[in-house]
Amino acid sequence: MKWMERAACVGEDPELFFPVGTTGPGLRDVRKAKAVCRRCPVAGQCLDWALRMGQTTGVWGGTSETERARMLRAARLR
Q1: Which cofactors does it use (predicted)?
Q2: Which residues are annotated as a binding site?
Q3: Most-buried pick from 21, 37, 55, 75 (CB within 10 A)?
Q4: What is the mean pLDDT of residues 62-78?
């Protein structure tokens, strides 16, 4: 978990990564969180961790809850 120390989200408001709702302000927060993830040197490790741990809430590794759920479903079907 040492990779977390290098994450671009360190120092950001954690609430940005856990938006309330899927419309309006929630969508805006998801876009802002993903923008942070795009400049993150450990986004891949973050996404891998979130998938392995079954993180069902928030933005992790540049993905939304819905996107990770799709990834997990696809992996189960393979």
Answers
A1: [4Fe-4S] cluster
A2: 9, 37, 40, 46
A3: 37
A4: 91
